[in-house]
Records
---
Amino acid sequence: MSVDDRAVVWFDIDNTLYSASSRISHAMGERIHAYFVRLGLSHEEASELHLRYYTQYGLALRGLTRHHDIGNVTFDSQLSSYPHTLLDPLEFDRQCDGSLPLEDMITFDPNTCKLFEDLDRSKVRVWGLTNAYRPHAERVLRILNLTDLIDGLVYCDYQVKDFSCKPEPEFYKMAMKQAGISDPSKCYFVDDNRGNIDGARAQNWAKCAHFCEKGLEAMEGGRTKQISNERAAGAEGTDGVDIVTTLDELRDITRLQNSLQHLKQTQTVLQEYVDAESPEDVDPEITKALEENTTVMYAPCICDWTPVDWTSKIAVVLKKNGF
């Protein structure tokens, strides 16, 4: 069996493949709060637990299954009077994600579709990576006309006891296993949640983009907040993370990365030539090209520079010198 060594571009789904302006997060948050209340909690208790579990686990249901044995019909002192039918995680999904009128809230976006179509499939595969259950994720992809442009989908399987979710390390490891990829440097990730991005970077995923519609509102853990690129207290490191406000900006990141890769390749050729020649025999044009190339490569912000393409000049000089 052949191994597919192409890189994987992972896309989150909710609030990433569509805009937060759809207010789906608000509708979802209201349904999750109502579910907590139907478990027998007061509105205050429901609000507190919803926020706590979302903050701690990245998913409210993850906290319920972990601390209240949702799915195992084991009573908890804090949840003493809830109906047994509500204990099923699939019932949670039906009452929350499953009841969302998605067809009235989001629609096909030709720009997003074109972005997916333009990804070079000879070099990358495209997978979805979501904390939602499969029916919701597939429903969103179908509405957005992206189903046939996704190679695979990793989701939270609510039927599995103690399922994992972003940003838990196990979820990213499971995702790589399902995609059949072992090298984290070949994983690229786009998500609207900075905690999920940090979780991916902690697993050494090569390049991550934080989709940040700064200024819009979204609901997280039952609380409405303005979207920003602020990080959780104690979060470490920023290397390998770009911030984009539209998915189309990913094209600019790709172009920049390709330019940088070209510069690195050029640098190698130039340096090999210089190392192979005695100082007095090095062509001045090559020396100048090496200096210019180095300046651009190691500029504090490469985005402020226009890469210099010395390819044709280098080829002529190297050929002239028999290199």
---
Amino acid sequence: MPTFDAVLHSLRSSLAVTLASFAPLAGKLVHLKDTGDVAISCSASDTVKFVVAESDTDTDIRRLVSDEEPDLPVLEQLVADVDMSKLRGRRGSRGDGAPRRRRWAVAVDATPPSFFEEDRARFTRRTFTLDKQDIQRLKQHIVHLSEAHDAPLTRPPSTYIAVIALAWTCFAQCKPFALDDDLVLYFLADVRDRLNPPVDAVYIGVCLTRCLAILPTRELRGACALVASASAIQNEVRRMTEDPTNRRDYLTPMIKASWDRLMNVSGSSGFRAYEIADFGWGKPRRTEPIRMNHDGQVALMRGRDDDGVQVSVSLLHRAEMDQFKSLFLELAGLN
């Protein structure tokens, strides 16, 4: 394992290389009144704070990395406190969270709508990990169901669609919705590669579009629920692909109106969070999304082994979470 000084030197040198390609991150954007141009103002106070915490016992660390239900109060103390008001207009997150040419990754949460802000302490959290074999089995199960019920899919489900279909089905079945209720799935899609011309690979702004799939509860509780959910997601992805620049501004009032029947998804099965968080000591034992503010939120990231998918779920009531867990393990064939 490299020494601390060696890692620190590597971080400093890689940051310098990165800023050559992403110059706006080197300082503050300022407006030059004389010319009307935008310039980058750098000063000695524009620094990156790097904090290292140590523990004298393995017990504290094991409690953070091994529990299915994360200790959020402790984890939140290890997360940097960022004043989002100072970052408006200078977002640095990419839609899939991919590392920028394996250099420094600067990720800043886009400020969410006010109705997304809830007290995180109220919610129950669980994290599940599906390995490569689990995902392949889930995909095959969905395809076999579609064939058995004569409900063919447009194509075999991707990893993202299969996992989200599983989570949406569990969400519909663990909560006391009426059978005629329309349930809403809200997720974001990265459209950089779908624009014409495509967005350059070094673009550091947000390039996302909103997607909404809607199904009645009864379809998500039937024998073919996984197929119905996967098909609805595929249809929404196809719509987005055909018209990636459609802003669909009417979605915000629709989301507010169906807030208690909505499951929202953040992250991606391709988001390599463990790789990004390797600062020279190897991949972290555990990476958890801290900011989950909704009764029915799912956050995805690539698994630590780089083959599987880590699924974090937030629900308000513990009994519903216990039911969600039971359904998730059963439908994924993990029992």
---
Amino acid sequence: MSDMKKHNMTDISSILQGGYHHPTIRQWQSEHVLRKSSLMYPIFVTDVPDIEEEILSLPGQKRWGLKTLPFLLKPLVRKGLKSVILFGVPIITPKDATGSKADDPNGPVIQAVKLILREFPELYVACDVCLCEYTDHGHCGMKYHRTMLFLLIFDSVSIFLSLGYLKQDGTLDNVGSVKRIAEVAINYAKAGAHCVAPSDMMDGRIKAIKESLIREGLSNKVTLMSYSAKFASSFYGPFRDAANSAPTFGNRKCYQLPPNARGLARRAIVRDLGEGADVIMVKPGMPYLDILRDAKELSPDVPIAVYQVSGEFSMIYRAAEAGVFTLEMAVRESLEGFIRAGEIMNKG
């Protein structure tokens, strides 16, 4: 008997409860209106407990440690913050080819999830799921591996050495990456995350995560939010600085979407809906309002998220700082544009 049948699930489309298991996401299921619960606050959490470090390319934003994180959250929760999304930033933890520390039980993300649930139980906690912050090559998945045989002459013992590489066409090991991404997502869910949000853009990872959630008995209480229409954008620069996640070689154009590829974005949205996504995301936001409208037309009954990314944030902030416009008015206008185009919730 298959694992799916053991859990009385014959089809991924049977799973709905992951999309309304928490009061905050129930509000996301409602019609368009700008409210505090529509906003999700990104947090860069590190493996240095006492750190509170300014991010120069993201004005007003910092990297936080587990001991300093409550000082960020207390005033925000008092002001009505309802949800956060966590990004792990290893500073002292070594990186490797597979991002093995991404789901370390003692790592920053899992420990931050537990801390927030304990000290701020009213918050809805999402975890970004990607490997780029934890891999020594900075890519969002795993590289292909070739195995080379070496003979140790002195003791006549043969050993195999596995070396990673990116193919000449810029592609990653999609199968291996999906398996690893699903492992990380499940471990975040087991730690108590209300939502897992894979941002890697590997083909098939939504289905793999959804099936894993079903097998683990978590599909009815963990939201699966897909970065479905994530474009290979120049607006990610400050984030990569904040998360120390820029690729050490090559680029991400073979797995993130081309900026002019509206049709691919539509296909990715439809695919991820079919694979079990509870929420669809468009990223970046302002340059892709047409895609946001497409997302709402393709999935009228599913919450749509938009990520106002680091470059957009910095652009608005610096322009306001230079006196081009008033910061609050510009932010509100950008958010209202997202809502008009079809967004229910905003990350940024």
---
Amino acid sequence: MVTAYDFPSAVHLDMAGIDICLVGNSAAMVVHGHDTTLPITLDEMLVHCRMVAASARYLSGTCRLVAMSPALISFDCEQAVDAAVRILKEGGMDVIKLEGGAPSKIIAAKAIVEAGIAVMGHVGLTPQAISVLGGFRPQGRNVDSAVKVAETSLALQEAGCFAVILECVPPHVAAAATSALKIPTIGIGAGPFCSGQVLVYHDLLGILQHPHHAKVTPKFCKHYASVGDVINKALVQYREEVSNGSFPSSTHSPYKINAADTEGFLQALEKLVLGDAASAATDAARKIEATS
């Protein structure tokens, strides 16, 4: 599983054979530029969902679309179900992801499932609860916290979740939870013993180069490419070529006007008392011809 927030990234995921596309609230950080995932709204998430869903007509059909709704963070059951319905109907998603394992979240997950909507749970480090967790802090690092990870995962399974994400927990805690569950686990910073893995698109591709991003990129993330460096190099080269006049050359100036129409155009400019413009057009034609 990999995150995607727009049409191009979703197409790339499908071309690579990624099983699940997650429209995550991480968009708040890697797309919107916020320091946390908290500021993004349901309406904003729906925009990203629709962009990703628009790719479906071009996809192979094997990549499932999952969306996380930030609106579910504080909604009661009725509101949670309404938000989940919007994600499927307006956003075009297949299922929704719900963070947290508080009793209210378990109840909300059960209500959404009973409404006929598949739910993926999420325990461990839950970014929407950082004010309670004291920041982006790993979980399951003491007895009580580790037991809570396992118990919450089982509660989400009992509520009807079809899978659970385990984020930022020790590998053996994730292994225990995976063993205890009958549903798949998807790890992120949880070691190699989960049923599957998920990473943020921008992180694994090394897209962003901003100092803030370097500060918040998780330690568990592996960079499979340095796409940001490639982008920056291309942009610098473009700026330099525009500045020195080497772009666009005749190769990238493909649209032609024949000699008769060129002459007629120059005569029309002269009649409009635009002699300087006619001279500029003549000089441009000579330069393009010289470099063709």
